[in-house]
Specification:
Blueprint (H helix, E strand, L loop, with lengths): L15 H16 L7 H7 L9 H14 L2 E5 L7 H6 L2 E5 L1 H11 L15 H17 L5 H32 L5 H6 L1 H27 L3 H15 L12 H20 L8 H44 L4 H12 L43 H4 L3 H23 L5 E3 L3 E2 L6 H15 L10 E5 L4 E7 L4 E5 L2 E5 L3 E8 L5
Parallel strand pairs: 4-7
Antiparallel strand pairs: 1-2, 3-9, 5-6, 6-9, 7-8
Helix pairs in contact: 1-5, 6-7, 6-9, 7-10, 7-12, 9-12, 10-11
């Protein structure tokens, strides 16, 4: 276990690009069911690459991969026509199992394989029948070793698939139940639930009966089973063309038995066993049902909102004019509700936000603390860039105030038909209108004749008088329609302004 894994040496060797190209060639040939390659075919296979290899250098590289265990080599027994051809083709090379596994891992982009669940319904019941057949073979007066080994191999094969897929199924359902793929999940939700329910029922029924049979097997019959299976396997050829000796066969068989008995006998809190599978899969069924219920409730909520909007659209189409439709839409969507008017009873809230009086708030000055004591000399130093930025901002504000002041011709301004030269001036004009309208409905504001006063440009005051007709404001990038226009009058500077 502590020995170095030489098969990975070709990935970091000085000639790693050459070795990787050769191993990828053998890997792709293996995928095409061509398992052995002579040196001349290897050389022809890398002609399109940037590698410049001579036949002699190629043989040295192939021998290095053989020494590391990535490639194998065997004698070429084909008939050749000349001594030179024999010298070139005397060996055939093939990728070993470890070499193919490394290249397959690299070919997958260093990503783990997709975890899928492949066990079919009835697999646990089938394992129970296989164990019953094994028990009959063990108890029979005449033992049939080959049949016993084949039945045991089938049982172990199904067990490996079952134990792995129970774990993956619990993990995948925990991870993949999200609201990101609603349509895909809802299409097969019934199949997922029924499959998980059947598998959980099989684990709880035939699975526990099989566990009882494994635990009740006498030590003599268990030894007879393991020794017979190991004896049949001893001397067989392995996938790597090696012969399995008696010690190796016994070790593999005992490991299979320990894994089988341990998985079925393990407690639920220990995880990754029969009882854990029963608990995890039953919990997964509950999560599937809860997920489906949440999906349906979310869908119903969305469809309900869509239905309300559809009904609203049909109602707006039937209204006599656009002004009424705008009022109905604003009322339905809550656009006209004065959300900024605390203390107003709901019965007194009207649809027009401008006509709703606001609550006066008295703001008191905050006493300044001893700021100088916390003021450091480093902070007090202002850079030239900061001074320049402050000066530029002051000049820009003065230009903006001057442009706003120029809007008033002879101190008068009518919003209807007003053309603003800059879109940045629109918020200021709307702020005058909003503040003036609120002030007009404030009894403590001191306004006269239904007009409100609001601060204007360069310290002036603006008197806002509502009109009964709508107004159109034009800016360089569009037109703004206002349901009620207003006439603005520029007054003198307010007190305190110099």
């Amino acid at each position: 276990m502590l020995s170095a894994l030489r098969e990975f040496a070709y990935l970091t060797a000085p000639s790693a690009p050459t070795y990787r190209a050769l191993m990828r060639l053998f890997y792709e040939a293996h995928l095409k069911q061509q398992h052995t390659l002579p040196p001349d075919e290897v050389l022809a296979g890398i002609e399109d690459s940037d590698l410049d290899l001579t036949p002699e250098a190629l043989l040295l590289d192939l021998d290095a991969l053989v020494a590391w265990g990535n490639l194998g080599r065997r004698r070429d027994t084909r008939r050749v026509g000349s001594l030179a051809e024999y010298a070139r083709k005397r060996d055939l090379y093939y990728a070993t199992a470890r070499g193919l596994a490394i290249e397959g891992f690299l070919d997958a982009g260093l990503d783990a394989a997709e975890e899928t669940v492949a066990v079919g319904a009835g697999i646990v019941s089938g394992m129970e029948r296989q164990w019953a057949h094994l028990a009959e073979l063990l108890s029979a007066p005449e033992l049939h070793p080959d049949e016993l080994e084949a039945s045991w191999a089938n049982l172990v094969r199904d067990f490996v698939a079952l134990s792995g897929d129970v774990r993956l199924l619990a993990l995948n359902l925990e991870r993949k139940l999200s609201l990101e793929a609603l349509d895909d999940f809802l299409e097969f939700k019934d199949a997922v639930r029924s499959y998980v329910e059947r598998l959980a029922a099989e684990l709880a029924g035939p699975g526990r009966r099989l566990r009882a049979g494994l635990q009740e097997l006498s030590p003599d019959l268990r030894s007879r089973l393991l020794n017979t299976v190991a004896g049949v396997r001893a001397g067989r050829l392995t996938r790597g063309a090696g012969v399995l000796d008696a010690e190796g066969a016994e070790r593999i068989t005992v490991r299979e038995w320990d894994g089988l008995l341990g998985w079925f006998s393990r407690r639920a809190e220990q995880g990754d066993g029969l009882e854990y599978g029963v608990v995890a899969l039953r919990g997964a069924v509950s999560r599937v049902l809860a997920f489906v219920d949440a999906v349906h409730r979310t869908r119903e909520l969305g469809l309900g909102r869509a239905g309300v909007l559809a009904e609203l659209a049909a109602h707006l189409v039937d209204l006599p004019d656009a002004s009424t439709a705008r009022e109905e839409l604003a009322h339905a969507l809550g656009l006209s509700a004065p959300l900024h008017a605390p203390g107003v009873p709901p019965a007194q809230v009207v649809y027009d936000a401008w006509a709703t009086p606001t609550e006066s708030v008295l703001l008191s000055a905050v006493q300044k603390g001893k700021v100088a004591e916390r003021f450091s000399a480093d902070v007090g130093e202002v850079s030239r860039e900061a001074k320049r930025a402050a000066r530029d901002a002051l000049q820009a504000e003065r230009r903006r105030q001057r442009l706003l002041l120029e809007l008033f011709e002879d101190g008068q301004l009518d919003l209807d038909g007003l053309i603003l030269p800059d879109a940045a001036m629109l918020p200021e004009v709307l702020a005058w209108l909003s503040a003036g309208l609120h002030a007009a409905h404030d009894p403590e504001n001191g306004a006269e004749g239904g007009a409100g006063l609001t601060p204007g440009p360069q310290g002036h005051q603006v008197r806002v008088s509502l009109t009964s007709s709508p107004a159109l404001l034009r800016v360089p990038d569009g037109t703004l329609w206002i349901e009620r226009g207003a006439a603005l009058e520029l007054l003198g500077q307010s007190e305190g302004v110099r």
